[in-house]
Design a protein that fits this description.
The chain has 447 residues and is α/β, with parallel strands linked by helices. It has helices at residues 3-15, 20-38, 41-45, 48-52, 101-117, 138-152, 171-185, 208-222, 240-251, 274-286, 292-298, 328-336, 352-360, 368-371, 374-388, 394-418, 425-444; strands spanning 57-66, 72-83, 89-95, 123-129, 161-164, 232-235, 255-256, 258-261, 264-267, 301-304, 316-318, 341-343, 364-366. Strand 6, helix 9 (240-251) and strand 7 form a beta-alpha-beta unit.
Length: 447
């Protein structure tokens, strides 16, 4: 770190010493910015870093609701409105028992730069609750979502803050949230993205994060004259991002051999084909069961309590589950097992020491803020369609998404070369994302 970035990080660490994930995300960005800021003193004079690491607004509220037994339950709701320099706050809602303010600040901070990279006018934010939809009835989920929106509606709007889905928040939850917002505000507007296609949603939105991550991986591989065809791939997770990453990889000729959930991992050495993917989608999206049932159905390996990284050899890895799911030791194992490309479908799934090791070993490493930006990019396209009262076809949206991911890749490449770090997509993504937001903050004054 430079003297300036070191000072900003130490101040942040003293102030928020318990917010480990947020501090990890901040350190990664500040490390990347150090060489760039040495030649750009205007950002230091204006205290841009000190301002960009603090949310513009943090909202915390209680969420009382009644379960199917008639008992009152109480959860905590959050919305971190981090930065609106280039557009309204944009970022998902996460409903999971692990949610706390530090995790949401990490996600919101990452979202600033991710949204900037898309080239769309989107600020950064994140929200959610420690409510876990898993195991709850539809009626209980609806009761919670309606209570959550009873407070959140005061703080969001189509030109103010536009939440989307994340872990635990899919089409069902977005529907309940939107319905309550519409009732409270007596207005139909594009305030949430990930909506059903019949009432304002965009084609490709469910697929966008996974598809976009694969498009980014394609561009990385092209720099070495390679393609996805014939490559063996490890994927973690089994939710929305994992499913559509798998679907796109299958269509491009890759062989995917793993998926996982919080209980364990499956290794299907024959490869997961389209028919097996349909089974997975029903298992996870409709029946909401554990991935072990896939192993029982198809007679493949199941490893309880294990992540996929140490279980099989592969060419490519796509961590699509959650933060910090690849340790340094796992990264070493992956490299020894032939992995030469990693693209992050999840947010910050690779621990910092593992990232440094992988980059040092010349592994193509696509960080989440670049590789998984396709989801928010398509949310931005959904906002555009809502504003214009139109709906683009599946092909139109997919083409726009593909072009956005190509442009993100090129922006990362160019920014990395500016600081003499060719091929370092982490530095490239952080610098390219930062410049647009920081310049907008300078132009708008001290606000």
């Amino acid at each position: 770190m430079s003297e300036y970035t070191d000072k900003v990080y130490n101040q942040l660490k003293q102030k928020y010493y318990w917010e480990n994930e947020f501090l990890q995300a901040a350190k990664e960005v500040l490390d990347s910015l150090s060489p760039f800021l040495e030649n750009a003193p205007k950002y230091q004079w204006s205290k841009i870093l000190e301002r960009i690491v603090e949310p513009e607004r943090t909202i915390i509220f209680r969420v009382p609701w009644v379960d199917d037994k008639g008992e009152v339950q109480v959860n905590t709701g959050y919305r971190v409105e981090f930065n609106s320099a280039i557009g309204p706050y944009k970022g998902g809602l996460r409903f999971h028992s692990s949610v706390n303010l530090g995790i949401l600040k990490f996600l919101g901070f990452e979202q600033i730069f991710k949204n900037s990279l898309t080239g769309l006018p989107l600020g950064g934010g994140k929200g959610g609750s420690d409510f876990a939809p898993k195991g709850k009835s539809d009626n209980e989920v609806m009761a919670f979502c309606q209570s959550f929106m009873n407070e959140l509606f005061r703080h969001i709007g189509a030109n103010r803050d536009v939440p989307a889905g994340d872990i635990g928040v899919g089409g069902r939850e977005i529907g309940y949230l939107f319905g309550q917002y519409k009732k409270l505000q007596n207005t139909f507007e594009g305030v949430l993205t990930g909506k059903g296609f019949n009432w304002g949603g965009s084609m490709i939105r469910p697929e966008a994060t996974g598809y976009g991550a694969v498009y980014f991986a394609q561009e990385m591989l092209k720099t070495r004259g390679e393609s996805l065809e014939g490559k063996t791939v490890l994927i973690s997770g089994s939710g929305n991002v994992s499913q559509y990453t798998l679907e796109k990889l299958i269509s491009l000729g890759s062989k995917v051999i793993s998926l996982s959930d919080s209980s364990g991992s499956i290794i299907d050495r024959e490869g997961i084909d389209s028919e097996k993917l349909e089974y997975i989608m029903d298992l996870k999206n409709n029946r909401r069961k554990r991935i072990k049932e896939y192993a029982d159905e198809y007679g493949c390996e199941y490893h309880e309590g294990k992540r996929p990284w140490e279980l099989a050899k592969a060419d490519i890895a796509a961590p699509c589950a959650t933060q910090n799911e690849i340790s340094l030791e796992e990264a070493k194992t992956m490299v020894n097992n032939g992995v030469g490309c990693i693209f992050e479908g999840a947010n910050m799934p690779t621990e910092p020491e593992a990232v440094d090791f992988l980059i040092g070993k010349k592994v193509l490493f696509g960080p989440g803020k670049a590789a998984n930006a396709g989801g928010v990019a398509t949310s931005g396209l959904e906002m555009s369609q809502n504003s214009m009262r139109i709906a683009w076809s599946r092909e139109e949206v997919d083409n726009k998404l593909h072009n956005i991911m190509i442009n993100i890749h090129q922006a990362c490449v160019n920014a990395a070369e500016e600081v003499n770090a060719p091929g370092n997509y982490v530095d490239g993504a952080n610098i390219a994302g930062f410049k647009k937001v920081a310049d907008a903050m300078l132009e708008q004054g001290v606000v």
